Structure formats: C-alpha cells, structure tokens
Amino acid sequence: xxxxxxxxxxLLVVIILLHSTPSMxxxxxxxxxxxxxxxISLGIIEDKEHNEVDKDKFxxxxxKAYALTNPPVEKVTQGELRNYLVRKFGFLHFAEYLGxx
Length: 101
Hints:
Layout lengths: L1 H17 L3 H11 L3 H6 L2 E3 L1 H6 L1 H7 L1 E6 L14 E7 L2 E6 L4
Antiparallel strand pairs: 1-2, 2-3, 3-4
C-alpha cells in the first residue's frame, strides 16, 4: 500500500513539474509528439501577432500563443510545427498545436 502511494505521489509531482510553466508545457507537448531532440533544443517566443489578433478569444480561453524559433518538421507533410496555444487551468499549463494560421 505504501509503495502505491509513493508511486502515485511521484507521478503527480512529475506531472505538476512538466506543466508548471508555459515553456515546460510546450516542451512536454513537443516531446510527446515524437520530437524529443527538438523539445530540448528549440527556442520559444511569444507570438505577438496571434496574441493581438485573437486577444479577446485568448482572454476567454485564458491562453497565449507561442511560436518556436527552431520548429520540428512533421514527418508526413514536411510542414513546420511552429505555432502553439498554451492554456492555463489553475496553476497548470497545457499546450496544443495552433496550426499555420
């Protein structure tokens, strides 16, 4: 019983650490998309253009757009995975691909 509690608490701590900041949430998302090298080496900047254009929508979602300076290239379509939306739920952040808009 004690081992199960320790394992569950450890997993919760790891999840909280991986989603504690927008950049960590974005790196975690990129890592689990299958681009571990890119998740470590990429640069992250705030996407001012998307944040200005969709300011009201992002405020409603409690989100911000981010762009990658060295984005990974999708294996199937050879497109760059550059723009992401990071939403905040409580104190945790979660990233999702925004697309090439």
